[in-house]
Amino acid sequence: MVLKGKNVVLGVSGSIAAYKAADLTSKLVQAGAVVDVIVTDAAREFVTPFTFRSLTGRPVYTNMFDPQTSAGEEHVALSRRADIVIVAPATATTIARIACGLADDMLALTVLATKVPVLLAPAMDSQMWEAAPTQDNVATLKSRGIGFVGPMSGRLASGNIGAGRLAEPATIVEAAKHLLARTGDLAGSRIVISAGGTREPIDPVRVITNRSSGKMGYALAEAARDRGAAVTLVSTIDSLPVPYGVDLVPVETVVEMRDAVLDACKSADALIMAAAVSDFRPAEAAVQKIKKGDSGLSLDLVKNADFLLEVPDDVVKVGFAAETQDLLQNAQKKLVEKRLDLNVANDVSASDAGFAVDTNRVTILDRDGGHEDVPLLPKYEVAQRILDRLVPLLQQRRR
After folding, report:
1. How far is CA 292 from CA 58, 139, 295, 296, 298, in A?
2. How far apart are CA 259 and CA 269, in angstroms?
3. How far apart are CA 267 and CA 269, in angstroms?
């Protein structure tokens, strides 16, 4: 959604990692972006312009004095129509050129002329990355608001082990979304989102938990990030990739989730409780593993406190009601009892919605007695519908 219809200028400079720029180009195009590629002379030693023309269906720029280009000053035309400029890979030489404001090749000149966000993805040997001049140049560019993604650590082309690997193309795409989201309708907002099912220990091996996969919470975190929010994700899940740019707070039990959520809410504008929080926990967890006996196992359970009621009233609160019967009645009751601004009701007994699947079908209830039925959609799209309802509530609180 963030990249659809956006004009992306992708600069490719002379690193062995230049071959990964082809994959990055493909991913940007698949995301709906219009991609113009600039290939430096050094990059042409590693990958040909024809590769990028085949992927984008558009001209590839290599020379700012090319008489075949459609505009007299193509670098200015590119910089004016761009929504974002990405340089991947960005070599030490290219970073130095940009930091010094040079305009001696098509790529550096285009970056100099642009007024849109710029994202650099460094790739070089670790010794070059760690060198004082490179670090000084990086610090200078960051102070000017230029974004960086990577480099990653690992085995390098030289055989060295260290920082200098190009970030994965999928990560660069996510970093570009994060950078573009600075102008989104949630920019300046801080949102706390909980995800997953809490796990209450019975003994060091066994826990009481539920079937929540965390996918809805993670979709909400990604969607909120894509609209410009600063997102804190309080999650029990360790099997899903954390969306780029989202702050993760890992927890397991209800007590841990309570502490993390209440702490994050001290500086938050909104809380979305997508987690499935355990209603009960063992009164006392065994220190050692309980052995299987002939008489079976009996557990003494105590009720967990509902910490949603402890969240300050100036925080907009969105809850979730995972139900198997009397969906709207139960969701409405929870909305009132938990003093929620919105409550998202979903029937988790459905095979195509709710737990452990990538789609959901929900009804969003509000304080005024209204409700919106959201049809079966990918969870990211459902998250966007929920955020559509959240935005005006945040705007009202700020008046």
Report:
1. 68, 60, 9, 7, 12
2. 17
3. 7
Distance CA 214, CA 211 (A): 9
CA-only gyration radius of the chain, Å: 25
Q: pLDDT tens digit string along 214-254?
A: 999 999 999 999 999 999 999 998 889 999 999 999 999 99
* Both structure tokens of 151: 């480099």
Q: Which CATH architecture has domain 185-398?
A: 3-Layer(aba) Sandwich (3.40)
The answer to whether 97 touches 33, Cβ cutoff 8 Å, is no
Residue 265: strand pairing partners: none
Amino acid at 8: V
- Written as six digits, the tokens of 323 are 């139900």
Report the pLDDT value the prediction gives residue 66, as an integer from 0 to 100: 65
Is the whole model's pTM more than 0.85, yes or no? yes
Q: Which residues are catalytic?
A: 210
Same topology for domains 7-181 and 185-398, yes or no? yes
The rounded distance, in Å, linking the Cα atoms of 196 and 187 is 26
Mean pLDDT on 168-184: 93
Residue the block writes with tokens 């559509």:
388
Which residues make Cβ contacts (< 8 Å) with residue 280, sequence separation at least 6? 200, 208, 301, 302, 303, 304
Copy the structure tokens of residue 195. 């995800």
Q: Which CATH number applies to 7-181: 3.40.50.1950, 3.40.50.10490, 3.40.50.9100, 3.40.50.2300?
A: 3.40.50.1950
Q: Please provide the size of the chain in residues.
A: 399
- Is residue 191 within 8 Å of 268, Cβ to Cβ? yes
- Domain borders along the chain are 7-181, 185-398
Q: What Å distances lie between residue 231 and 6, 190, 397, CA to CA?
A: 24, 6, 19
What was the pLDDT predicted at 288? 83
Q: Give the pLDDT of residue 67.
A: 52
Summarised one tens digit per residue, pLDDT across range 361-370 is 999 999 988 8
Give me 102's structure tokens. Answer: 């040079």
**Quick one: which of 363, 307, 315 has its CA closest to 341?**
315
